[in-house]
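Kindly review both lines to help learners:
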Amino acid sequence: MEAITIKRVTEAELAKELREQYINNPPEGMTSDEVRDMSDDDLLDMDYFLHEFDDLDDDDFGEEGFYIL
């Protein structure tokens, strides 16, 4: 068996990495300066919402109460 090592990353470390990524390639409608001036929390929220539906295998559509009867 192969041991798997998981590196724990703090929110501050993740925000720093994301900030560098988004400064180099800002999301559509934003500038590098806007990304640079964002708080860590805002940056993490933006990244979450940009990738919220990336998992195409996720079959949670409709669980929020949208049903066609």
